[in-house]
Amino acid sequence: MTETQDAPARGDSATLPAIELAGVVKDYQSHGETVRAVKGLDLTIGEGEFFSLLGPSGCGKTTTMRMIAGFEEPTEGEVFLHGQKVTGVPAHRRDVNMVFQSYALFPHMSVFENVAFGLRRKGVERSEITRRVGEMLEIVDLAGREKRRPGQMSGGQQQRVALARALVNRPRALLLDEPLGALDLKLRQQMQVELKRIQREVGVTFVYVTHDQGEALTMSDRIAVMNDGSLEQLGTPRDIYEHPASKFVAGFIGTSNLLSGEVAEVADGRAVLAYGPGERIVVPLREGTAVSGGQHVELTVRPEKIELHTEPPAGDGSMIRGTVSEVVYLGTSTNYQVVTSAGADVVVFTQNVNSAEDIAARGDSVWLSWDPRHSYLIGQIGATP
Predict the structure, then answer these.
(1) Confidence label for 4 from pLDDT (cuts 50, 70 and 90)
(2) Where is the ABC transporter domain (predicted)?
(3) 115 by DSSP, 3-state: which?
C-alpha cells in the first residue's frame, strides 16, 4: 500500500480540507548559503475551492505549489491531501494534476489523443475513454475539434486542451502555474471567465499561482498574498482589496493611496487626523483597533473612492487640499494625480459618466473628499474586521 493509504486521516472525511500545509519550510543552498524560500507556511484549502497564491516573483508561491504537487519536498513541515499526509510521496502517486504555462501538448497527436493520453496509460477501456474525452471536450467548449492538432489551434484553445487533459483523469485537485501568462490581454481576460466556469462545472479544487492581481481578484474564492516566503494576508478578493492588512498588500493589490498623519482627536469610535485649515481625515476604528491622540498612523484609501472638487466640499467626511500634477484620459475614466498640501501623492479615478470634460487641469488647486468608511488603518494597529 502507498503512504497515502497507510497514513491516518486528520478527522471526518466529510469536513476534511482538500489541501493543508502545516508549518511548511523550504530551504535551498546557493553559493554555500542557505536561502529560505518558504518560511513556516500554514494554509488550509477547502474542497471545491478556487484558491489563488498571489505575489511578486520570488515570493515563494511556485515553490509552495511544487511542494503540493510533489515536485519539491519541504525542509520542514507537512503536506496533507484530503487528510492524508503525502510528505515524501512522489508526484505520480498524489491525486493532483498540474497545468503549466507552456501547455506541454504533444504536437503530433490530435486533440482527442492528447486528452486521452493519461487514460490510455492507466489502461482505461476504449469505450470509457471515448465517453470521458467527449464529455470533457464539451465542458471546455472544444467539441467538434477532436481531430485537430495543437499547431492548428489558437493559444486559448491549446490552453483548454491542456485543461481537458488534466481534468479527464478526475484529480481531486488541479494546480495551475501561471497558465495564462503566454496569452495576449484580451484572450487572457476571456480565459479568466472560462476557467472559473470550468471550475464551477467540474467542482474540482483549483490552486492557481499568479503574479497578476486582476486574475486573482476575478477568479478566486480566496487569495493568499505571499511576500518574501511568508503569508502576508489571506481572505476573499473583496476583503483583501477593501481591507489590506499591510502596506505591502495595499500597494500590491490594485492601486492604493498611502497616507499618514498624527491623530488629533479620538471620539465616537473614530480617529481624526488634522492637516491644514479645513482639512481632516476621518478614520473609523474597527474592533480591536486602539489609537490615541498624538499617535502617528498610516492609512490607505482606494482611488475610485475619492471625489475631486474645485471648491471645498460640504459634509463631515475626509477632505484634504492638493494641486493636480497630471491628468490621464483613459476613455471610460480619467485619472488625476494630486500632490496634497502635506506633500503626499494621491491618485483619483473618476468615471466619465456625465461629461467628457476634465474636472480640473494640471496645476489647478483642488479638494479631495471621501466617506470615512473608505479609510482603513494599516500596520499593527489596523486590525482586520
Answers:
(1) very low
(2) 19-253
(3) helix
Q: Quote the CA–CA distance of 211 and 50 in Å, as a whole number.
A: 16
Nearest to 207 by CA among 65, 84, 312: 65
Round to whole Å and give the CA distance between 347 and 72.
42
Q: String of b and e for 165-181 (b: at least 16 CB within 10 Å)?
A: bbbbbebebbbbbbbbe
Domain residue extents for the chain: 2-251, 257-377
Give the β-pairing of 76-81 and 19-30.
Answer: antiparallel
375: helix, strand or coil? coil
Burial class (CB in 10 A: 0-12, 13-18, 19+), 295: middle
Give the architecture (CATH level 2) of 257-377.
Beta Barrel (2.40)
- Report DSSP state, residue 211: S
**Chain segment 203-228, per-residue pLDDT in tens:** 999 999 999 999 999 999 999 999 99
Stated as kind and residue range, the H or E segment containing 219 is helix 213-219
Domains 2-251 and 257-377 share a fold: no
**330-337 long-range contacts, CB within 8 A, separation 24+:** 334/358, 334/359, 335/303, 336/308, 336/360, 336/366
Question: d(Cα 359, Cα 57) in Å, to the nearest integer?
Answer: 38
Q: Which residues pair with 369 in a beta bridge?
A: 307, 319
pTM score: 0.85
Domain 2-251 class?
alpha beta
Angle in degrees, 0-180, between the axes of helices 155-167 and 126-139, rounded to the nearest 10: 130
Identify the helix (H) or strand (E) that includes residue 121: helix 111-121
Closest of 269, 299, 267 to residue 281, by C-alpha: 299
Interval 21-39: pLDDT, tens: 999 999 999 888 999 999 9
CB 48 within 8 A of CB 41: no
